[in-house]
Write a structure and sequence with these properties.
43% helix; 370 residues; alpha/beta; 2 domains; eight-stranded mixed sheet; globular
Length: 370
């Protein structure tokens, strides 16, 4: 199969994060010839070393990467499969070429746990020009497209999580100070934080400072600015600022942490594969539509109610309940139940086919019907 994937970067890293993982999975896992169109190469370069932000076209990891400019190259026309991520609409001239080749046209939708997704997954949308677009929904059940997951992920994750020395060697390579690594070895809880600016990060610091167990906090550069001053208070977590890293290393940060605060779609899914407790900051929408989506996921996530309460508080900072919710969720009995739930959630989701395999099979079936 020859495929084009179109990606418009909306919230800095989530859109390109999903598209880049999908492009690599299809190229490396299914042997597809993948062409990835990206409108913001600077954001792409933050999560993938080697990306040249000024290059009109480049190749990396077996993927042909095209800068999606206002005047795209007219010689790059549609091939077997066209995947538009999150309804971004390919350029008009490219759509004109699709009318000649009639490729399998996929709208890769946003991830949702809502029940209606199952009935809409895979449905066609007939256009007046004769082209047909199919909706493909990531999700958490066998009636959806599933979640992106690479072969061998569990084996690699378990090996790292079984060795504190390997974790510390990895974190040291990212610039984490030996004094913090010593605290990890002595039993400090490691917390990673990747959040939107609206997150009540200072309330989290307050709660961790009050917790009897010491904490090490891993935060990417530029995320939650101003934490340095808050982390000088007595008992406050030991703060380590991390550089932005390639996706496989971001996964290892999550695997090396006991608790992961994540945001958006891509880091949320990767935190689920870490098989560790996670707190998801969902992307905010008008009229609080995102909170309905959050509740749909919580109805599936088997963590204790104390964890659910923390996740709700994290997404509604105006309630002022984050600090007390952190304390409740980390109470020994609640924490143990949450750790067990995270392992269960990972196993349940890993038993389902991954999104790339489902998408490739779906496109192959469409090709047979053409």
């Amino acid at each position: 199969m020859q495929a084009d994937i179109f990606c418009r970067v909306v919230d800095n890293y989530g859109d390109i994060g999903v598209c880049w993982r999908l492009a690599r999975r299809l190229a490396q896992g299914r042997g597809w010839d993948v062409r990835l169109w990206v409108d913001d190469l600077a954001s792409f370069a933050h999560i993938q070393p080697g990306i040249q932000a000024q290059s009109a076209r480049q190749s990396l990891n077996g993927v042909d990467i095209v800068h999606w400019s206002p005047t795209p190259d007219p010689t790059l026309t549609a091939r077997d499969v066209v995947i538009e991520a999150f309804a971004c609409d390919p350029p008009p001239a490219f759509i004109d070429s699709m009318r000649h080749t009639h490729p399998a046209w996929i709208n890769l939708e946003y991830l949702s746990a809502e029940a209606w997704v199952e009935s809409c997954h895979g449905l066609p949308s007939q256009r007046p020009d004769g082209l047909v677009k199919h909706f493909f929904f990531p999700g958490f059940t066998a009636a959806t497209g599933g979640l992106l997951r690479e072969p061998g992920l569990t084996r690699e994750r378990d090996a790292l999580q079984a060795s504190v020395d390997q974790q510390n060697d990895f974190l040291r390579s990212l610039g984490v100070d030996d004094a913090l690594l010593l605290q990890r070895r002595d039993g400090a809880r490691t917390v990673s934080l990747f959040c939107y600016p609206t997150a009540p990060a200072h309330d989290l610091i307050q709660a961790l400072a009050a917790d009897p167990r010491r904490s090490v906090l891993l935060v990417p550069q530029g995320v939650a600015p101003g934490l340095e001053a808050a982390c000088t208070a007595p008992g406050a977590p030991l703060l380590a600022r991390l550089p932005f890293v390639a996706q496989p290393d971001f996964d290892r940060v999550l695997w090396s942490s006991d608790l992961n605060f994540v945001r958006g779609e891509d880091s949320f899914v990767r935190a689920a594969w870490a098989a560790r407790p996670l707190v998801w900051q969902i992307y905010a929408q008008e009229e609080n539509a995102h909170l309905e989506k959050l509740e749909a996921w919580l109805a599936r996530y088997p963590a204790p109610e104390s964890a659910h309460a923390l996740i709700r508080a994290w997404n509604q900072p105006e309630t002022g309940q984050t600090a007390s919710a952190v304390a409740a969720a980390m109470a020994p009995a609640h924490w143990k139940a949450w750790v067990q739930a995270a392992t269960k959630w990972d196993a349940e989701q890993a038993a389902l086919p991954d999104l790339a395999e489902n998408l490739a099979d779906f496109c192959a079936d469409l090709a047979k019907k053409r």
